[in-house]
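re: ur question from yesterday

yeah so i grabbed the chain u mentioned. its 68 aa long if i counted rite. heres the sequnce exactly as i have it in my notes:
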Amino acid sequence: MKAPLLTLTPEELLSISPEVRAKYRDAVTPRAFKPRTNQSQLADIIEDDTDELPDVANSSSHIPPASN
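ran it thru and got these structure tokens back, copy pasting raw so excuse formatting
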């Protein structure tokens, strides 16, 4: 004996099944997320009004020359 085929609209299914309705609601409800603060994205900007250029030749940090 074959099982009878029963077709339900989404509204009918949600009205008769609280479990399905709860899962559906959880799946489609937008969630509020706290914005993440990534320390690498934050920067302090310091404005320098002096006309002097920094002395990079005598600085303690060494930047290797670009290679060709």
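noticed a couple things. Helices lie at 10-16, 18-28. also The mean pLDDT is 76.
anyway ttyl
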